[in-house]
Amino acid sequence: MIAETPQPPYYAVIFSSIRTEVDNGYSEMADLMVELASEQDGFLGIESAREGVGITVSYWKDLESIRKWKQHSEHIVAQQKGRGEWYKHYKVRISKVERDYEF
């Protein structure tokens, strides 16, 4: 599903990843992170796809909202498990969306 976002400007956190073979609760944690993120002030939406390389883009009102989410206690646990078990490699990019359009 494509996220419904407001008129720009807003921010996008782009999380690109390559998984390990370890599952160990990954899907459940991913679902929990989406649920928790959606409850955070400033959260605007999320889109995700995986085929070889996984890409998840979350949308946020401002940089402060992103900072608070990164520091959320349960998100920190997920980050640690990701580095320790679930990801071979990942990269996070934060960008300001200045314009969008759709069909």
UniProtKB/TrEMBL annotation:
ABM domain: from which residue to which, for each copy?
A: 9-80
**What InterPro entries has UniProt attached to this entry?**
ABM_dom, Dimeric_a/b-barrel, Jasmonate_Hydroxylase-like
Know the name of this protein?
Polysaccharide biosynthesis protein
Taxonomically, what lineage is the organism?
A: Bacteria, Pseudomonadati, Bacteroidota, Cytophagia, Cytophagales
